[in-house]
Amino acid sequence: MLQLVDSHVHLDDPAFADDREAVIQRARLAGIGRMVIPAVDAGSWPKIRDLCAVHAGLHPAYGLHPMFLSRHAPEDVGKLLSWLNENRPVAIGEIGLDFHVDGLDLELQRHYFIGQLQLAQERDLPVIVHARGALEEVTLTLRRHGGLRGVVHSFSGSEQQARQLWAMGFHLGIGGPVTYERAQRLRRIVAQMPIEFLLLESDAPDQPGAAHRGERNEPAHVTEVLRCIAALRNAPEAEIAAATSANARRLFGLD
Length: 255
What we know:
Helices cover about 40% and strands about 15% of the residues. It is α/β, with parallel strands linked by helices. The chain has a single domain (about 5-250), classed as Metal-dependent hydrolases (TIM Barrel), CATH 3.20.20. Helix 3 (about 75-85) packs parallel to helix 4 (about 105-125). InterPro entries: DNase_TatD-rel_CS, Metal_Hydrolase, TatD-like. GO terms for molecular function: hydrolase activity, acting on ester bonds; metal ion binding. Keywords: Hydrolase, Metal-binding. It holds the Pfam family TatD_DNase.
């Protein structure tokens, strides 16, 4: 069986409240041996910590997501520092900027984003970055801070934007959207990109692939993302699985 890493799955989400154990078991049976669980707010940190503590192969990331500003408090960046002192994650995330959702305070988003990037620099941790509608500013911010590493999850930018991220050593997280035939630009990028910057992800329970349109997504569906990418690159699935899993292990220090 191929051994895969789901580099981005919100297993703590209430959508999994009724069958979380079964979801994890289905992922295991599909060959998803490791999963990175990014947080969205301070309230989710203990739940993610406890979930990862009882399941081998689940790895926590802690952060403040830009879409959940109403749940954050100004002191939460300081709380994150204290939390990192006591709970070693594999990354800081999910962090970033979101210019797609109306009504989100842009300056407040920037405040949290920059504060968490500084923590990543201080703690030498990778970052898991959300950049919906904000990839240009996110890229400039990452470049301005320097010395960072990580992944822009659910990448949906141009080839030029992808090249700018690779030049800084950043990975692209690719999930369900690539399985849609209409995603021609993304498919072209994935087909030709340097394999060392590619990570597989589900973003479950969100972003289901074409075969599960309108359904709740699951980490087990990463196998369908793998199959699609292997076909786009005209490469064996085992080759893509080995490379992307090695990338995730190296970035997040999973070994």
